[in-house]
Design goal:
The longest helix is centred in the N-terminal third of the chain and has 27 residues. The chain is built from eleven helices and twelve strands. It has 327 residues and is an alpha/beta fold. The strands form two sheets. The chain has a six-stranded parallel sheet, with helices on both faces. Strands 7-6-8-9-10-12 form a six-stranded mixed sheet, sandwiched between helices. Bound molecules: alpha-L-arabinofuranose (AHR).
Length: 327
Amino acid sequence: MKRILAAAALLALLLGGCAARGEAQREERLIRVGFSQVGSESDWRMANTASMIDALSEKNGFELLFDNAKQHQENQLLAIRNFIQQDVDYIVLAPIAESGWDDVLQEAKAAGIPVIIVDRQIAVADEDLYTSWVGSDFLAEGQRAIRWLEQTVQQQGRLSEPLRILHIQGTDGATAQLLRTKALDDAVRTHPGWQIVARLQGEYTEAKSYELVRDFLSTGEKIDVIYSENDNMSFGAIRALDEAGIRCGTDGDVLLISFDAVRQALELCMEGKINVCVECNPLHGPRVAALIEQLEAGETPAKLTYVDETFFSADILNEALIQKREY
Ligand code: AHR
């Protein structure tokens, strides 16, 4: 009898142990996230990738499947289909452009995988195809740049004088391009003297912008302002201007407006080479992780979340401020 009781106690202990281990394994299960990133076209994008990888790490309870689409939408479509096949728990998409997502997101929906959009937005017929979006208010960024330009030319006493603007655009159809362009177009409509002398498709890269601005300057056309839709394209423009012997910035003949406010651009702004850096915050990793945690807890996160942003000009910048920034 004693022996039977001892065996029963041992069995109970073993079963209890297994149950506890099962419980612990359940608790330790990583949340599998497939993330389709646009590419590595800019310093902003590199900071964004680093933020996502850091936040969606194993130590934070995630298994991240990362795909770099190298600025091609077809690669993003392939990556999403691959994530669906691998039956991930969540898909996170940083879309290259707004359109072209309906079919693939229908497939994700049919597979029961929630989709979170980050950075740029998407235009889909059925808004239920994605759960949540987090990113920048790109129109507000553009309007911030325009207000700075209005105030600057007003202080210089030339608000109603002709202003020849060279516009360097980001990837066609990306929310950042569409809305920063809209802010400029709206301003040109309300200022009769403002004129866009050329629009260059710089694709958010330094190399492309350098080539295009260099070729443009070789025509001899005069400009007063460069409205550059990201910092890396500004770096390319500065190189082309330097080579052409044209000075930009606070003591120059061309006002340079730049978007993103990455560290190198802020340094150039402090030196007076860039007049204004309009901030675009790339640190979305913790925001995306928080959205997933809300969904895991059965909560309904906000459909759209806009991050707070500002702008920087030389008069407010100093080395300590720049070094404190995370990107
Ligand atoms: O969508 C955000 C934009 O994409 C940033 O301004 C740019 O640098 C990046 O490539």
